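Priority: medium. Attachment 1 of 2:
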């Protein structure tokens, strides 16, 4: 069998304050294969964001390990954080914020070069497909929350990532556009064979975009249950009419509650 893309072994994390120690993650073990789409759901505070940040190396676990395969280390990882308002530099125009995907200078100074022609073409293509207009001469504060999230999503996608990590990426997007983007993301991850990890409070979104739904416990940070989504790919809007779709959503609801 091929090596898993990501191997998580006994990962635990405790947040400590003066009043109490709180288990955010407790003994989480999981193997993620290349091309899988996995959703993490659970109540607020169940550790979804913390787990994704540990996977990305942004946070560290108190115990346990996260191993990335050599194949993943050679490719780009796209990331859209939950805290979108602090994910863009407010003093830089959108054009410069987009170009930050190119990296950081040796002295810590950010490269704010213009996007390459290929990058600009990809940006325009995604704007067209997503049916959104973003003026790159604007500053982040001039965008709505949903527009900021869309900019971050496009910035992640134009990198053509092998692994796409999304943490509530559409939480501020209006309902109609959110449903539309969900269908486009389903097409995209299927056609590119991209591995997708995402956290969501939208259980229909979780079923629409995943092969497995990992439900995390609120009180312990452990994995409460893994729900297999047995729906064929590619997925269209009509998949929601499939009885298996509704059954999977109901199973998530009963598990979370």
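Attachment 2 of 2:
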């Amino acid at each position: 069998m091929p090596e898993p893309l990501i191997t998580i072994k006994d990962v635990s994390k405790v947040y400590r304050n003066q009043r109490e120690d709180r288990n955010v993650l407790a003994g989480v073990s999981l193997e993620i294969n290349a091309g899988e789409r996995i959703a993490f759901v659970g109540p607020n505070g169940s550790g979804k964001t913390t787990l994704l940040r540990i996977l990305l190396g942004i946070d560290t676990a108190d115990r346990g390990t996260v191993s990335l395969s050599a194949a993943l280390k050679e490719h780009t990882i796209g990331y859209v954080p939950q805290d979108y308002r602090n994910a863009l530099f407010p003093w830089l125009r959108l054009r410069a914020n987009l170009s930050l995907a190119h990296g950081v200078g040796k002295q810590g100074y950010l490269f704010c070069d213009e996007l390459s022609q290929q990058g600009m073409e990809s940006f325009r293509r995604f704007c067209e497909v997503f049916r959104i207009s973003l003026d790159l001469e604007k500053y982040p504060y001039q965008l709505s929350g949903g527009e900021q999230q869309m900019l971050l999503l496009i910035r992640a996608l134009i990198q053509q990532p092998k692994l796409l990590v999304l943490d509530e990426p559409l939480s501020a997007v209006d309902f109609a556009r959110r449903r539309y983007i969900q269908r486009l993301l389903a097409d995209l991850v299927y056609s590119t064979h991209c591995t997708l990890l995402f956290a969501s409070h939208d259980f229909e979104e979780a079923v629409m975009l995943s092969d497995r739904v990992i439900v995390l416990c609120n009180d312990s940070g452990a994995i409460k249950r893994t729900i297999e989504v047995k729906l064929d790919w590619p997925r269209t809007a009509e998949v929601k009419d499939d009885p298996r779709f509704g059954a999977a959503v109901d199973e998530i609801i009963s598990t979370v509650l």
